TrEMBL record:
InterPro entries, per the entry: Ig-like_dom, Ig-like_dom_sf, Ig-like_fold, Ig_sub, Ig_V-set, Myelin_P0-rel
GO BP annotation list: cardiac muscle cell action potential involved in contraction; membrane depolarization during cardiac muscle cell action potential; monoatomic ion transmembrane transport; sodium ion transport
GO-annotated molecular function: sodium channel regulator activity
GO terms for cellular component: axon; voltage-gated sodium channel complex
Protein name (database record): Sodium channel regulatory subunit beta-2
Ranges annotated as spanning the membrane: 208-230
Keyword field contains Membrane: yes
Subcellular localization: Cell membrane; Cell projection, Axon
Protein's UniProt keywords contain Transport: yes
UniProt lineage: Eukaryota, Metazoa, Chordata, Craniata, Vertebrata
Coiled-coil blocks: none
UniProt membrane topology term: Single-pass type I membrane protein
Amino acid sequence: MFYVSLKYIRAFFFFFFFFFLASNHSSLVALGPSNHPLPYPTRLTSQSLKMHKDAWLPRPAFSLTGLSLFFSLVPPGWSMEVTVPTILNVLNGSDARLPCTFNSCYTVNHKQFSLNWTYQECNNCSEEMFLQFRMKIINLKLERFRDRVEFSGNPSKYDVSVTLRNVQLEDEGTYNCYIMNPPDRHRGHGKIYLKVLMEEPPERDSTVAVIVGASVGGFLAVVILVLMVVKCVRRKKEQKLSTDDLKTEEEGKTDGEGNADDGNK
């Protein structure tokens, strides 16, 4: 089943629009009785305004132009996309899951779906196939891996991951997963470099970072608190001064009125 997304619909409408413009631009030419374009300028008559019966058909050259525009507007999402980690660090003796997922425009049909997992020891070395999917999982059981390879994915959910048990130093190298999901014509490819570690990498001590962060945060909190207190104190002082000024003005007005009354008497 084909899933049509919005970007494909948009590409189709772009194609139709440009194709319509290109074809009409080539065909909207008034043809005379001899089926040749009329010279310009010319005197238009009722006979010259009659168009050829095939005048509205798109010309081949402009049809190809419309097709080229269509293919240029097709998004790159038509091809299959495979998602894998570039480098995978694994501790010696532990189990490693090699994740490989893919996106496809088509659902997985197990009768047509195919998968190949290969191992490559070095860049110039040949690839050794160790697992296949042809209607079912086929574990080739290479001498290198024997029974340590296990398929841990689900093709119906677009997951073709494998698990390598008891990883050894000799397992270090490049692992490739190749995917075909017809009718999708593009083959997906994912490449993982497996690096085997002899010991776990030292954990980063975050105690210093926590102490520094707490100290900085506490200092900022104290500064903000002090600023708020200072602001409140200043505001109270300003309010008190303004109140005192108002009282002084009122007392001055009262004294002025009292003196004026005494003078009148």
